[in-house]
Amino acid sequence: MRLTDSDLNDMPSRERATLVNSLSGFKSANLIGTANTKGQSNLAIMSSVVHLGSHPPLLALVIRPGGEERHTLDNILSTQHFSINHVSTSMIEAAHQTAARYPRDTCEFEATGLTPQWWTGFSAPVVAQANVKLAMVLRDHQELTINGTHLVIGEVVQLELPDESLNADGSLDLLSTDTVALAGLDAYHRGDLLKRMAYAKPELPPRTLDTAGVSDEP
Amino acid sequence: MRLTDSDLNDMPSRERATLVNSLSGFKSANLIGTANTKGQSNLAIMSSVVHLGSHPPLLALVIRPGGEERHTLDNILSTQHFSINHVSTSMIEAAHQTAARYPRDTCEFEATGLTPQWWTGFSAPVVAQANVKLAMVLRDHQELTINGTHLVIGEVVQLELPDESLNADGSLDLLSTDTVALAGLDAYHRGDLLKRMAYAKPELPPRTLDTAGVSDEP
């Protein structure tokens, strides 16, 4: 079917939000850990983490200023620190539940059964249960005038991952880390590796790497 | 294992890029179709499409100004139009091959065997083989000072998707559209639906929707 901008505009608000949230394809599912200046922690699921550059290692995050996400934004701006934690299959229910509109003084860790972990010198909690944990320092922030969302840019200053998930070429095996992908607002998927491709060059036909031959780092 | 920013900084450049590109979790895999003012088309795979808002329906895209992606950026700024096309399982080789550094006058459609389709009133080609095709109009653009990447914001003005992929609640079934997810720079995955969750509310324990009961729109 073909839909126009008028068709989208005429849809009921919830359906439109659900559809448009599905249009970009699969999304990352991450728990963003923060704390306010008193050390009260907050945890929020977000699907908007995007790679910005690898040197320095920068990730960006789109935050909606309304709703539950505003506590996260306030905390990041106050402390300059936040954590990014991959949602794994066993954490889906708890991770999704962080999206509920809890009052500001309710800790989503307690409410959902996840465990905060505090790293030395870092003022945001990471999620103990997550297999991939990133400690991020705020490097840039702006409100996007087009719709009032906030673009938050952070640098990875420390990370923890399972030894066996890091391949020799530097890639992270997201099946081994049990990381899930999100479709739309609420559909959690596990990934099935179809193929790894060789570096693309104009003179060569596409090649598939022997995925079985990708070795783990010791 | 725990890695610090110094560890990342000391890694060989290719390995660091590979690792940092894996840190955000699963990423969308989309082909961005553009044309220059003479109608010469360009196609580039990108994993940086991110949801920005649903009313108006806005998606953002991070583009690196160097390398192959610069043709895409030039074309978007010239014509204000671009298409976003989901990479599906049968298109992986061709889609990945668009990342090769072809000369500016080489058409990635011809080089990779994908077929451009032209929609009335829209100056960028969409990919005929894609199951989900979005026609986008540029709404905002800026160079991010932190690392010189470009943030391109577009509005969905028209889209095409398979009738059977649109659920009654507005969500798109990304298994039915055969959409793939990308891990790192080159690992293409199919999604396996684990669960759909109900809208999260503070007073309720997490609930799983009966995914088998989600009906398709007629």
Oligomer description: homodimer
Main sheet of chain A: which strands, in order across?
4-3-7-10-11-6-5
Helix content of chain A: 10-25%
| Helix and strand run of chain A | EHHEEEEEHEHHEEEEEEE
Largest sheet of chain A: 7 strands, antiparallel
Low-confidence stretches of chain A: 210-218
Strand content of chain A: 35-45%
The count of strands of chain A amounts to: 14
Q: Give the largest chain-chain interface (CB within 8 Å).
A: A-B, 115 and 116 residues
First-last Cα distance of chain A: 50 Å
DSSP summary: helix tally of chain A:
5
| CA-based shape of chain A | globular
What report would you give on this structure?
2 copies of one chain form a homodimer. Chain A is an alpha+beta fold. The first copy, chain A, is 17% helix and 36% strand. The first copy, chain A, has 5 helices and 14 strands. A 7-stranded antiparallel sheet of chain A has the order 4-3-7-10-11-6-5. In chain A, a hairpin with a 2-residue loop joins strand 5 and strand 6. The longest helix of chain A is centred in the middle third of the chain and has 11 residues. The first copy, chain A, is globular. The C terminus of chain A is likely disordered. The interface between A and B is large, with 115 and 116 residues. Strand 13 of chain A pairs antiparallel with strand 13 of chain B.
